[in-house]
From TrEMBL:
It comes from Mangrovivirga cuniculi. GO terms for molecular function: ATP binding; CMP kinase activity; dCMP kinase activity. Its EC number is 2.7.4.25. Residues 6-220 form the Cytidylate kinase domain. The lineage of its organism: Bacteria, Pseudomonadati, Bacteroidota, Cytophagia, Cytophagales. ATP binds at G10, Y11, S12, A13, C14, G15, K16, S17, S18. Keywords: ATP-binding, Cytoplasm, Kinase, Nucleotide-binding, Transferase. It catalyses: dCMP + ATP = dCDP + ADP; CMP + ATP = CDP + ADP. Coiled coil: none annotated. CDD domains: CMPK (cd02020). Belongs to the cytidylate kinase family. Type 1 subfamily. One of its GO terms (cellular component) is cytoplasm. One of its GO terms (biological process) is pyrimidine nucleotide metabolic process. This is Cytidylate kinase.
């Protein structure tokens, strides 16, 4: 069976990253969390008071940013590093979540991160999740998935996840944040979140994680068979 690339796009808290990680695990593929990169840039911009309206300052700041992922064997997961520091927890806090879509809408930021993501996805055998993976980052991906879910369900999932990290956040604040990010992510000029024609749409509202994984694995398997073998 040939190796393929899998692109998973969609709204926040539909289950993209949890599903993508499990699929990468099952297929022994590499998982790449593109959202973590946008979050790391946002953290740097917040901590260094970068003025988002000043293109020159944004460009200069981007030159000072180095992002990489390192595997934590104790936790059995890959973690995000910003300029050599582990920022895996910091990038998931609300102060970053509240700013990330504004930073992600900047064309200069997208250019730098898309280049990096394309380098990481050059060799087949990658599962990458985000907003523009099927459309811009990996347009040749053999499987493209577009995930959706009801807003209330998404917000409850995110609230539960934050609670598990000892962060108590009001449900309405989460809904406001998700709705705001949906709006900015779908309407920005460069790399907006969009469902490409060839993407398989999965509504996860009433699904379990395991069901999502199985459905995507089935789609993936059918694309791993060479066309010659199919005939
Ligand atoms: O996990 P969650 O769905 O909340 O978000 P994420 O995947 O970590 O992405 C955080 C934000 O980064 C999104 O709301 C987008 O603004 C931005 N993002 C993007 O613009 N393009 C991507 N490929 C991935 C994330
Ligand atoms: O990456 P994205 O923001 O789309 O979602 P996620 O971070 O993978 O999922 C958000 C939360 O929803 C996680 O805690 C998942 O375990 C949970 N969840 C899910 O993804 N799918 C379900 N069917 C049920 C819960």
């Amino acid at each position: 069976m040939k190796k393929i690339n899998i692109a998973i796009d969609g709204y926040s808290a539909c289950g993209k990253s949890s599903t993508a990680k499990m699929i990468a695990n099952r297929l022994q593929y590499k998982y790449i969390d593109s959202g973590a990169m946008y979050r790391a840039v946002t953290l740097y911009f917040i901590d260094n008071y970068v003025d988002l309206t000043n293109e020159k300052k944004v460009d200069k700041a981007l030159k000072n940013i180095q992002i990489d992922f390192r595997f934590n064997s104790k936790k059995e997961k890959s973690e995000t590093y910003l300029n050599g520091l582990n920022v895996e927890e910091d990038i998931r806090t609300m102060r970053v979540t509240n700013m990330v879509s504004e930073v992600s809408a900047l064309p200069e930021v997208r250019k730098v991160l898309v280049d990096l993501q394309q380098k990481l996805g050059k060799k087949k055998g990658v599962v990458m999740d985000g907003r523009d993976i099927g459309s811009i980052v990996l347009p040749d991906a053999e499987l493209k998935v577009f995930m959706t879910a009801d807003m209330k369900v998404r917000a409850l999932r995110r609230q539960q996840e934050l609670l598990e990290k000892d962060q108590l956040v009001d449900l309405n604040d989460i809904i406001d944040n998700l709705a705001k990010r949906d709006r900015i992510d779908t309407t920005r000029k460069v790399g907006p979140l969009t469902k490409v024609d060839e993407a398989v749409e999965i509504d996860t509202t009433h699904m379990t994680l395991e069901e999502q994984v199985e459905e995507i694995l089935n789609e993936a398997t059918s694309r791993m068979v060479d066309n010659k073998q199919k005939i």
